Amino acid sequence: MAGAIVRVRAQLSPANQGRFREGEIRQALAEASYVVVRREVEAAWRDTQRGKQFSTAMSPREALSAFLDQAKPDLPASRKDKLLEWGDSLIGEVLGQGMDEGVGL
Predict the structure, then answer these.
(1) Is 53 a member of any domain?
(2) pTM passes above 0.85
(3) What CA–CA distance (Å, rounded) separates 19 from 77?
(4) Do both 102 and 64 map to the same domain?
(5) What are phi and psi of 89, to 5 degrees?
(6) What is the number of structural domains in the chain?
(7) DSSP readout, 9-74?
(8) Is the separation of the CB atoms in 41 and 17 below 8 Å?
(9) How far apart are CA 12 and CA 42, in angstroms?
(10) For residues 105 and 61, is the Cβ–Cβ distance under 8 A?
(11) Per-residue confidence (pLDDT) for residue 61, from 0 to 100
């Protein structure tokens, strides 16, 4: 691969897009001169109302907040804050960060 120009096209579903490890792909292709990674989520998902409100550019907390806004638009602010707090704890655990470190919010 040394000196090569590499294009990676990943066709993803909503179920597997979170498991896509772009960093590992780039690391494996470190000897290439140029690497482009393109993620494609199934059109059926993107075209739904829910899919339009979510983006891979969102942080996990932003996605949770958007989900709560859509799923429970009448949710009291205090309850949403509590759910987001619990979400922060879970996200931190999954990402291997302690509560003091935050979760990249």
Answers:
(1) no
(2) no
(3) 31
(4) yes
(5) -65, -45
(6) 2
(7) EEEE-TTTGGG--HHHHHHHTTTSSEEEEEEEE-HHHHTSHHHHT--TTS-HHHHHHHHHHHH-TT
(8) yes
(9) 6
(10) yes
(11) 87
